## 1
Amino acid sequence: QNKDKLKKTLKNINGRGYKAYKQIQSNWYDFGYYKLGIPYVQGDPFASPSSILIRIDQQVTNFPAWFWENKIRRMAVTDFLTRLIERAIKKYSKGQRGSGKSGLIAITKTGQEVLERTSVEFNKDMIEARLSLGLPAAGRRVLGNEAYKMFFDELPKIINSTLYYDNINSSSLKKHVQVIEDQETLRGKLEEQGLVAFIANDSILPRQSGIDDRPLTGNKVVHFMSPPEYEVTFDLPHLGKIKGMGVKEGITLIVGGGYHGKSTLLNAIEKGVYNHIPGDGREYVVTREDAVKIRAEDGRRIEKVDISPFINNLPQGETTTDFCTENASGSTSQAANIIEALEIGTKLLLIDEDTCATNFMIRDSRMQRLVTKDKEPITPFIDKVKSLYTDYKVSTVIVVGGAGDYFDVADHVIMMDEYRPKDVTDLAHKIAIELPTQRKEESSDKFGRICRRVPDPDSINPKRGNKFKVKASSKDVIHFGRNNIELSNLEQLLNREQAKTIGYILVFALQKGIIDGQSSLGDILNKIFNILEKEGLKIISPFNYPDGDYVKPRPYEVGAALNRLRTLKVKR
Ligand code: ADP
Ligand code: MG
C-alpha cells in the first residue's frame, strides 16, 4: 500500500480509542526507497510495544557485495547497523510522549560483544531492520499527529542515516567487519596449534567496574604482555601478524597474589568465546568456543546426574550415579556443573578459586589423616583433573591463590605479578619436589563415565493455563510457564536478550518435537543449533513475523538453563 494510506488512517483515528490503531496492522507501506511493515500493533499504550519492519533492496542501499560474501561478515554488518540505529534513535526520536510507552522507538540493546541477532537481517538481496515502537496516546486516546511525526519524520531520518551505504561511515564499518572476521579466524586456528586460548599483546583486560563492561581507562591500566615462554604469532587475514600469549591444552594454573589480576585474566578468557567490538580491549582475546566456566552454585536443583566421578558413599546410602536434589551443596553443585558441561561436550573447563567450594577442590594431608577416606564422599578435583585430560582430552585452566598442592598436577603455571603474566612452571615444579604435600591421591587413574540423559518433554511446560509465558526480565531469570529458571550463576550468559532467546529456543524445540523423549540432551542441542545455523535465528519466533529481540546464546547456556528448570525430568 501507499504511504499516503497510512497518513490518512492516522488522521482519521486521531483522538479515538487506542484499539483504532489496529487498522494499521498487517500492512506493508511503500515509502519509495524502503517499505515499512507493521506486523503487530499493541493493544494498549502500556503493553509491549508494536513491531515494525523496515525493508530495503540491496540495489538501493548501495552496499558492496564484499559485505555479504560470508556469514561472519553478514553478522558483523548486522551488529554494526544495530548499533548505528541505536544511536540514530537517540538522535532523531523525540522519545517518550503521552502515556505508557507512547512515542518510544527502540531496537535491541547491544554491549561489548558482537552476537548473532535478529534486530537486522542483511543479505545479498535486502536489509531488514526490526524495531519496536510505542504508538502514542494521551491516556488511551490515539495521538494521531504524534504517530504521524514518528512514521513520517523520525523514522525516515533514522533510516536515512543508517541503512544507506553512502550515508554511513564506511571506513568504520569496514574496520568493524575486519576485526570481527579476524577474531573468528583466530579462534578457528587455536586447535591446530594445540591452544585453548590466546591473549594478544597490548590487550586491555580489566573493565570499568563490576557493572560496566567497557574497558578500564586511565594511566593505571597495564596492557597485557605475554611472557616470552608462551609467546605465539598468528597471521590474520586483515590485521596481519599478531603476537600474544598462547594458553596450551592440558592443565594450566594461574597463580599470584591477591589483587594481582588473576580473575581478570580468567574472565577475559571466559568471554573470549564471543567476538568483541573494536576498541573493547579484548578484540584479540579468543578462547575455544566450547569453554565452560565452572563454579559452585549451592541451592540449585540437580536431576539425575551421575556425579560419582567426584562424589560417592553419601551418608544414609544416597546414590550418586543418578543424583537428585532440590538443594545442592557447594561441592555437589560444582560436581554437577562439571558433569553437565562434559555431557554437552565441552573440552575446556575454566575455574576460579574465588567461586569454588574449597572441599571440592582440595583435601590436604592433615585432613586426609583426620577424616579418613571412608568418611569422605568427595574425591577432590585435584585428583581428577589429570584423568579428565588423559581420558577425555578436556583441558582445565584454574585460578589458584591458596592451594599450592596443585603444582603437582599442573602442566603450566602462569603467575600474575602486578597484572603482568610470568612463566613460573619450572619453579613451581621444583618447589613441588622440595616440599612434597604428603597427601595421598584419592582416585584410580580413570575419570569415570559421563552420563547421557534424555529429557522428558512432558516435564518442560512453557505454558501458564493454556497461554505461553516465556519472558526474561533480566539476564538472571527466565519466567518459563509457572516456573522461574535461575541463571545468575551462568557467568558466560551475557544479557537479558540471550536469556529470553533461550526460553524461546526451548519452546521451539518442544513444538518441533526435537525434545522427543528419546534424544539425549547433547543430541537435542546439536539438532537445535544445526537448524539455527541453516535457517537463521529468526526461525524460533512463535509469531507469524520475526521478533527483532533475539540474541543467539551458546548451546552450553541453553543446556544449563534446561538443567536448572525445577520441573525437569530425565531418563537415563
Ligand atoms: P585477583 O583475582 O588476582 O585477586 P583481580 O583480577 O580481581 O585480582 O583484579 C584486582 C583489581 O585489579 C580489579 O579491580 C581489576 O579491575 C584490577 N586490574 C586487573 N587487571 C588490571 C590491569 N591489567 N591493569 C589495571 N588494573 C587491573
Ligand atoms: Mg580473584
## 2
Amino acid sequence: VISLTPPALATPTTTGAVPATCTIYLHGATVTSWTVNGREMLFLSSKAILDGSKPIRGGIPLVFPQFGTYPGAPLPQHGFARTSTWRVLRTDVSPDETKATVVFVLTSSDLSLAARTAWPTPFRLEYTVTVDAVHHTLATDLAATNLATTTEFDMPFTWLLHTYLRVDAIEKTEIRGLEGHLYVNKAIADRDPTTQAFPALPIKEETDRVYQNVVPAAESHLHVLSGGRPAVEIVRTHGETAFRDVVVWNPWVDKAKAMADFGDDEYRHMVCVEVGDVVVPNAVSVAPGETRRAGQVLRALL
Ligand code: BG6
C-alpha cells in the first residue's frame, strides 16, 4: 500500500485536516482513498476485499484490456489490470512539495499465466497518479505501449478508469456534461441507443449507461453535483487521444444486495463516473512500438 501525501502539506491545518492524501494498493494499482482537507472524495465499500483475491470494490479500479465481458471474451469481466500486482517505477515530489506522484508499471511478464495466455500481445502499461494539495486535484494517467516487434500485431483494446465517487446522498446527486450524447442503457433489456435529452442526469434507479463519443471539450467537462452545487469536476486529458466514452453506474437496491463485497445501503453514497474507450467501434488500436495515452483530472469543488 502506498501513501501519497505532499510533504509540505502533510501537517494538519488548524482545523485538524491534512490538505491532501491518497492511498493506492499495488493490487490493481487501485487508488482506494483521496482526501481533500480531510474530506474523503472516493467511495470504498466497507465490504471491499483488500487481500488481493478479488478486484477492489471502490476507489479507482483500472479496466484494461477488456471492458465488461461478452460470449467468447478472452478475459474475465473488466480484464486483468485491476487484479494484477503492479510495480512501482518511481515516486516524485514537486520542488515546492505541494504535489506528489507515483508511477506504476505492468508488463506481460507481471501477468498470471492464464492472463498471458489469453492476452499474448507483449505490452507495457504505465499508470501515473498525482495528488496536488493546492489545486485540490487527483490526476490519473494511463499509457499503453504495444511492444510487439512485427507489424502484423496491432494491439486493440478497451480501457477505462472505473472511478467510484463518494456522494453525500444519491437522491441529491446529478451528473452534468452528457446532454445530447447517445447512450446505451445496460440496466434494461432494450439496448437501442438513446439521446440524453436533459442537461442533468439524476440517479433515481439502477443506472448502467454507456455514453458514446462524448468528445471532451473545455466547455463540456463532466460535473458531479450534490444538492445543486458542483462537487467534483472530471477533466479528460491528452487532447486527441483523450478518453471518449463515459459510463455512469449505480447498482441500486437489488444489485447492491446481490453483491457480496458491497453493503446493502451503500448505493446511496456512491456513483461511478467512468471515463474510457469502451464502445467497440471506437476502441483503441495501438501499432507495434507505439504508445496511447489518456487520463483524467478529478477536482474537488466543495
Ligand atoms: C460498470 C459496468 O462499469 O462496472 C457494469 O458498466 C458493472 O455493468 C460494473 O456491473 C461493476 O462491475 P464489477 O465487475 O466490478 O462488478
